[in-house]
Amino acid sequence: MVEFRNSGGRPKMKDGTRVKKIDVRFTQEEYDIITGLEKELGISKTELIRLRVLNDAVKIVINASQLICVLDRIGADIGRAGNNINQLAKHANTLKLKGALSPQVAVQFNNLLEDYIAIQVSLESAIRKIIQQMGK
Fold first, then answer.
1. InterPro entries, per this entry (predicted)?
2. Which of 5, 72, 99, 112 has CA atoms 20 to 30 A from the CA of 17?
3. Domain check: are 84 and 124 in the same one?
4. Mean pLDDT of 66-75
């Protein structure tokens, strides 16, 4: 005869017991989203909802792979813009050597370049904030 030993049941909670229950109904689309997040993040539906509602309601659960794809596209766009600026600067230098560069064109180019640099600095700051939030 095999003797079964009492393993003590479910481990005791550190901070009280969960005695209250909330029933929630979802549409099929909402449920599919939650199920997808459960698989992608590797946590149960209950923990996913509990974390989202109770712990960090201000934070947003994000799809990391989609975010990386978007950031990759942004990086590629920045690279293309840099190439375009280099081509314009090369063309301007060629015109300057020939004496055909209009001062108005040079001033307008410098103004546009300053605007571009300001936008790029703002974009870099936003990306840093995203990365910091992901790390928390």
1. NikA-like (IPR053842)
2. 5
3. yes
4. 85
Domain-embedded: residue 11: no
pLDDT at 37: 87
Chain CA centroid to CA 94, Å: 41
- Both tokens of 123, joined, read 């974009």
30: its two tokens: 């909402």
Cα 40 from chain centre: 15
Q: How would you label 25-53 residue by residue, b for 16+ Cβ within 10 Å and e otherwise?
A: eeeeeeeeeeeebbeeeeeeeeebbeeee
- Are residues 96 and 45 part of one domain? no
pLDDT tens readout for residues 12-64: 667 777 788 888 899 999 999 989 988 888 888 988 888 878 775 555 666 77
CA distance 114 to 26: 50
Task: Count CA atoms closer than 13 A to 1's CA, side-chain side.
Answer: 3
